[in-house]
Design brief:
homodimer, about 230 residues, mainly alpha, Arc Repressor Mutant, subunit A, Four Helix Bundle (Hemerythrin (Met), subunit A), 2 domains
């Protein structure tokens, strides 16, 4: 059992606002007004400012000196840039796992992956809730990998991208039903490449799935008339 | 000419404290007390809290809920983790430059590199100031590469690591005189591999120089009895 200090107030506000941005309740490009948020949540303006700095680190808002904060835009260029670095960071994580571990030591990955696949199998009503569950289980595999690699900087960097990536999944929600099989296949291929210590294979699996997600998101943005 | 909004107060405080951490004036593991900093700089406690969040993003302080902030430690494990991700991110940047540009289009890199080499040649008294100048010129090459690659997430991630990397250079300061030739050779090899579009060569140059720096820093930490 692990006892954790409760999150700071600014972290709680950041999580609340972050969730609203990820699910699209706060729209890309929308202004986030400190005073309004402070009065809505009945917290100090200073706590909201701190929360905005945390959200900036998580790539969800942009802060302009003396002009305030805005929900990050979601243009095709930004989606491409986001997936470019995220896919590379995932490959880095995978490479570092395989540099240090092999064979039997990686059975834990398999059990994490099986959990994701179980979540996917038991989903009855794909929708917002389904997406959240699959995303959560998927990030569980990454958490496990963090423990194997033990690089706090890589973990922090990847975790800071997690909300922005989650936001793109939510954009793709309308198409999510068809995505489940694809996601299931991805995790299956991922686990097998890892167990076989097949680094080029593992990178290929990550690159293909990342590119597939990116393409989905871009086509939806295009349909929404953003592109 | 570009007009920029002046930095926010919290950014100015972050830069002031950041400089003290990078140069070792604030020691690894030392507590940073909000109230003390606020009274020293005659600013509000809220502004100091914001500055600490900015420094956390730049990997220079750690913040513990309800226990306050501490200058990040500089253990061998942390130095290794830092160089691991930094070298990989630099290779990512180099890869993305070569994916999009080649030959004549890369002559600008050459002129940036020549600036670094000129700085090195004209240094008369290697010391703290010399290190800062070389580091600054070296980061100028990266700035140029950012412009070629145009990925704001990669730029931001690399920039957030820059102060922590600079801090390790400062640790290596005692040995800096001997490092100048090595640094000069690195930038020369870097420019040639880039102009030839030789990606494996470029990755090798970055990896070797990064590993060399890492080894220097680790040996100094060991000598200081940290390891």
């Amino acid at each position: 059992m692990r006892f954790q200090a409760p999150e700071s107030l600014s972290e709680q506000i950041a999580q609340h606002l972050g969730q609203r941005i990820v699910t699209g309740d706060l729209r890309p490009g929308e202004r986030v007004q400190e005073l309004k948020v402070a009065s809505e949540l009945n917290v100090s303006r200073g706590s909201v400012r701190e929360a905005l700095l945390i959200l900036q680190r998580r790539h969800l808002v942009e802060i302009f000196p003396r002009r305030g904060a805005m929900v990050s835009k979601l243009t095709p260029d930004l989606v491409n840039s986001l997936y470019d670095i995220y896919i590379d960071l995932l490959c880095m994580l995978a490479r570092k796992v395989l540099e240090r571990w092999s064979g039997q030591e990686l059975m834990g990955v398999m059990s994490q992956v099986n959990e994701v696949r179980l979540v996917i199998e038991t989903l009855e009503n794909p929708g917002a809730d389904a997406a959240e569950k699959v995303i959560e289980a998927g990030f569980g595999v990454m958490q496990y990998a963090y423990g194997l690699v033990n690089n706090p900087f890589l973990e922090e960097t990847l975790e800071n991208f997690r909300p922005a990536i989650s936001r793109t999944y939510f954009v793709a929600l309308g198409h999510f039903r068809g995505e489940l099989k694809q996601t299931d296949r991805f995790f299956n291929e991922l686990a097998h490449a890892a167990l076989e210590g097949d680094m080029p294979g593992l990178e290929g699996v990550i690159q293909r799935f990342g590119d597939h997600q990116r393409t989905q998101v871009l086509s939806i943005l295009r349909a929404q008339g953003v592109a």
